[in-house]
């Protein structure tokens, strides 16, 4: 029996989404820039999807731009910084952090977080000045699941007239989000995180906000994102988003119940620690550290037992480097090195969680029995 508990990495594409992708690929496969009927049919498919995405996310259709995924959306937003200073949180996804570090001639400031992963807003406020071009803080963290006070940050940035970007990749499909109410200027979305296709995403750009294109060429997406549009993928993303928000509360309550059962069960393991905020966390995220356990070995043995998960640590047996997120929340190396992320999806059952809670303690104990760390 295989138990997939790595839905924060990617999700299984819904069969109904695949049906839509197939339909468009076979019936309306034209280039949306073409003037003939097939091209115009493809354009109609794309604009219908744009309206659907906008409606669900609380935006206007002309604020929705289709991209190849969250990383491209993040890159586009970050690389548009006009002024000298850029501020991002210390726990951002690498597609934000590495992009921010890449920019030449920019002053980069990393806002610290507390031990639960919540951004220190007073530290952010002190750094905001006339030279600040952009602030980027993710809505929820992909490793430890902590949800950030985005609306409060957006209000602060608005007062200081500083553009604000939020990576909402992990939050979409797991909670109701209204981008206009959040007050962000940019937001990034990725389709494969909510049972949609890989290779397609969204960049929300608040109406009236200037943005430089990352990709130049034919001028598609109102000259912001050149390249022939991935109409089947766009329609697939739209369908997946629709499905994700059907009976959302009921589905998330189910995942919260399973999440809390995992947390309760894993907490009984000696020398274990929950990472991230206890309540302000994604309904499907569980991140634990086990003292004296090597993360890579933990994942390998769990996989052998049929449980597919990921380590909250970016360590490898050669580099022994820990995750920047776990480092940012102040976790000591001996704890951070033995981290496990379990992320639930719509197909997980209580039976699977019961089995996971039987296997994980056994594997942890087995690894500790041969560990030099006591």
Describe this structure in words.
- The chain is α/β, with parallel strands linked by helices and 374 residues long.
- The chain has two domains: 15-244, Aspartate Aminotransferase, domain 2 (3-Layer(aba) Sandwich), CATH 3.40.640; 248-368, Alpha-Beta Complex (Aspartate Aminotransferase, domain 1), CATH 3.90.1150.
- It is built from 13 helices and twelve strands.
- Strands 2-8-7-6-5-3-4 form a seven-stranded mixed β-sheet, with helices on both faces. A three-stranded antiparallel β-sheet has the order 9-10-12. A two-stranded parallel sheet has the order 1-11.
What are the key terms here?
single chain; 13 helices; 39% helix; 374 residues; three-stranded antiparallel beta sheet; alpha/beta
Write a compact overview of the structure shown:
By secondary structure, this protein is an alpha/beta fold. It has helices spanning 15-27, 37-57, 70-78, 94-102, 121-127, 150-159, 179-182, 231-244, 248-266, 295-304, 324-328, 333-336, 350-368; strands at residues 3-4, 64-67, 85-89, 107-111, 132-136, 163-167, 186-190, 201-205, 272-274, 285-290, 307-308, 339-343.
């Amino acid at each position: 029996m295989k138990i997939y508990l790595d839905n924060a990495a990617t999700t299984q594409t819904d069969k109904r989404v695949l049906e839509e992708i197939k339909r468009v690929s076979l019936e309306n496969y034209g280039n949306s820039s073409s003037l003939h009927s097939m091209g115009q049919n493809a354009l109609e498919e794309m604009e219908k999807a744009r309206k659907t995405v906008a409606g669900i996310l609380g935006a206007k259709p002309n604020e929705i731009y289709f991209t190849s995924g969250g990383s491209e959306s993040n890159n586009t937003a970050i690389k548009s910084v006009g002024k000298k200073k850029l501020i991002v949180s210390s726990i951002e996804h690498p597609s934000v952090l590495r992009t921010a570090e890449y920019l030449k001639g920019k002053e980069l400031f990393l806002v610290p977080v507390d031990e639960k992963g919540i951004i220190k807003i007073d530290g952010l406020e002190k750094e905001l000045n006339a030279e600040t071009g952009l602030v980027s803080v993710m809505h929820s963290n992909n490793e430890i699941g902590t949800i950030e006070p985005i609306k409060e940050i957006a209000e602060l940035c608005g007062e200081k007239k500083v553009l604000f970007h939020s990576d909402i990749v992990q939050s979409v499909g797991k909670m109701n989000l209204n981008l206009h109410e959040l007050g962000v200027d940019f937001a990034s979305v990725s389709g494969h995180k909510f049972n949609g296709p890989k290779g397609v995403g969204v960049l929300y750009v608040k109406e009236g906000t200037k943005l430089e294109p990352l990709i130049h060429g034919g001028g598609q997406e109102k000259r912001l994102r050149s390249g022939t549009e991935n109409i089947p993928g766009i329609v697939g993303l739209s369908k997946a988003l629709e499905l994700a928000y059907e009976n959302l509360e009921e589905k998330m309550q189910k995942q919260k119940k399973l999440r809390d059962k995992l947390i309760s069960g894993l907490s009984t393991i000696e020398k274990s620690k929950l990472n991230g905020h206890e309540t302000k966390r994604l309904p499907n995220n569980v991140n634990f550290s086990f003292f004296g356990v090597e993360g890579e070995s933990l994942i390998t043995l769990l996989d052998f037992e049929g449980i597919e998960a990921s380590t909250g640590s970016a360590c490898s047996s050669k580099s022994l480097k820990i995750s920047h997120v776990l480092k940012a929340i102040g976790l000591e190396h001996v704890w951070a090195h033995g981290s496990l992320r379990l992320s639930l999806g719509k197909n997980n059952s209580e039976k699977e969680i019961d089995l996971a809670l039987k296997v994980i303690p056994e594997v942890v104990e087995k690894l500790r029995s041969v560990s030099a760390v006591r």
